[in-house]
Amino acid sequence: MKKKKLALFLALTMVVASFAGCGGKKEKASDNGSAKQEAETETEGSEEGRYLMWRLYSEPKQWDPTNNSESVSDAICKQLFEGLTVSTSDGFKPGIAEKWDVSEDGKTYTFHLRKDAKWSDGSPVTAKDFEYSWRRICDPNFASEALQAITDYVVGATEYFEGTGEYDDIKATAIDDYTFEVVLKNATPFFPQLVANDVYLPIKKEAVEAAGEGWEKKPESAISNGAFYLEEYQVGSHLLLKKNPYYYAADEVKLPGIKAVFITDDNTAYQAYQAGEIDVMDHLPAEQIPQIVAEDPYVIVSADTGAQFLNFNVDKAPFDNVHVRKAVAKAIDRKQITEQVLKDGSIPASNFIAPTCQKTDGTHFRELEADGYPAEEYGIDPRQAKVEDAQAELAEAGYPNGEGFPEVEITYANTEKNKRLCEAIQQMLETNLNIKVKLRAEESSVFSSTKSKGDYQMAPGGWTNNPYDASGLIKLFYSQNGNNTCQWRWREYKGAPNDTTLNPGNKAFDEAFDKAMASLGEERDAAWEEANKALMDDMPITALYYPSFVALVNEDQVENVELTLGNSFMFSHAEIVE
Question: Is the confidence at residue 9, as pLDDT, over 60?
Answer without folding.
Answer: no
